[in-house]
Task: structure prediction
Amino acid sequence: MLMRPTTTATRTSRYQFPRSGVDVNTIAGSMELMGIRIPYARNVEIFGEGEPAEYLYKVVSGTVRSCKLLDDGRRQVTGFYMVGEAFGLEPDEEHHFSAEAVNDTVILVVKRSAIIGLAARDADIARQLWAMTARELQRVQNHMLVLGCMGAKQRVAAFLLQMALRGSGGDEIELPMSRQDIADYLGMTVETVSRTMTQLENDAAIGLASSRRIVLRDRTALTRLNA
Amino acid sequence: MLMRPTTTATRTSRYQFPRSGVDVNTIAGSMELMGIRIPYARNVEIFGEGEPAEYLYKVVSGTVRSCKLLDDGRRQVTGFYMVGEAFGLEPDEEHHFSAEAVNDTVILVVKRSAIIGLAARDADIARQLWAMTARELQRVQNHMLVLGCMGAKQRVAAFLLQMALRGSGGDEIELPMSRQDIADYLGMTVETVSRTMTQLENDAAIGLASSRRIVLRDRTALTRLNA
DNA sequence: CGAATCATTGAGGAATTTCAAGTGGTGTGG
DNA sequence: CCACACCACTTGAAATTCCTCAATGATTCG
Result:
């Protein structure tokens, strides 16, 4: 499973937007009170690997990918973050992966120190931070199973099922990311992703309305692949 | 990168051993005070996926592997835990992977509720728990890079370098795990692991004193592979 | 010492990558 | 509004890597 390097993301400065507050019981809620909204254009880097981790981020609209890069340019997308999901939280002072806007995106940004400060006084907040990281760990561990054990068809099927869950939940999926993003997430090449998609379509497991609009026609078949 | 199923672990009952206390400032330290030592024989399951997570574990001697299983028997080893390392801590009440003794092992076991109780009162303990999980997350994210981007030679090289770091630090490595364990960790077959090892030996990058005793002869070459 | 497990090696085949070309859509400037 | 340029996606054919199956060696353990 080797593949060609992927070109990297642009880097720009940050805007500042008005806030709008709600809900205070959870971190996710209290974030609204403390954070500011910042728009990022497609493919712009939100933070880079090795940079100081000063903020916690939450997707307001759009989609974000987190990546790790190999020196020769090969890329592993470690995850996608969709509306409502948080990312970039670190207990130590440094980011261990980079984050980029998959498409035009608005991110809610909160000072890390504020969160940490809360956690120092409120054991429940502390626990939520921990739980957040733990959920992320689970997600990534599950993905190891995909990367370590599955063939191309299984990988794509698993990916589509996962995306369906995170989207409306129905059988129509609108993919925000490119084939290259998917490929780098699944540890394969664009070409193989593409071929596998058409193959699934021929199997009548999915329908391809357009390259980014996918319909799950036979969930059972898709699920069975993962067996 | 598909492969044959791997046979699973035995399951036995648990012993109880006398304790010996030390050091109270860190969790790792205070664990000694609260925990009991339990020996596990080679290939015995310490806990299973889906079981209630009642304890936190720390390796006193021996080595542990954590795994996830696919229904058809394929296995992904998600990590190895060596002397001094902790595992099995979960913020929620359930284990999301299983753990097995790679060889005869002694594990220090501490009640989860005790730890959580401490954390509720001491923000610093809470933070250590979080940091523990976060370090694990980092480790796993790095491994995604291996599984997603690297070829066989790179994977094995990366693995050996990592093992050298965790061992004495010198150039001699004593591998506690089988080729099958390594294969399932690296997402390849035993045969390919074996072949790759001999290939690295022919490249004069490593020496194979025995199948489990490996000498790093050319660290530069091994590192360069990862470039 | 023999049985069993673990590790290595070989040969052939399957899956995926690579390289190359072609298609389709989208935005921009004329 | 069209033409062109650009980018994302698809498809084909050849090459490669890794897996599978099978046999042989080595090591461990009773």
Summary: The radius of gyration of chain A is 18 Å. Residues 11-23 of chain A have pLDDT under 50 and may be disordered. Chain A has two domains: 8-148, 150-225. The first strand of chain A starts at residue 36 and ends at 40.
